[in-house]
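[job 4471] stage=fold_predict status=RUNNING
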Amino acid sequence: MKKIIIILTLFLTSMFVGNATSAELNKSAPDFTLKALSGDNVRLKELSGQVVLINFWASWCGPCRKEMPLLDELHAKYSDLGFTVLGVNVEQQNQKAKEFINELNVSFPILLDEQNTVSKLYDVEAMPTTVVIDRNSNLRYVHYGYQAGDEKLYKKMVKALIRE
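[job 4471] inference complete, writing structure tokens
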């Protein structure tokens, strides 16, 4: 049974991730409010004036596990310059998300999108999906999937938007 679960998880991850792709955009980012694991409500509009990286993830996603600590490093390095990372868990049951975050011990806010309303707003098609929003609340980049080295692209995007 355990082997079947592992094979199924690997298959689903490969279906959702595929090749990592990204696109540059410049349109208004949809506003939302979600409850964080901390119990607080987080509203995107209240972060206006900051560069925001939103990472949509799931606990069953292998690439998400690899990417999360790298996003935490990015958050720690640039948060004093008006940058924040928001992790958005897309699972209906959040117990596994809590375990995942406790294990990885990230410092940025983790939000719960149990009804997938925000995921739909942002056309999330793969796990993980990462979007970057500029200081004027415009959606500037969307990146689907994760491969080693993608964090360098995120860093480049964030640095450019912080300077704007």
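[job 4471] summary: The helical segments are 2-17, 62-78, 95-104, 117-121, 150-163.
[job 4471] exit 0
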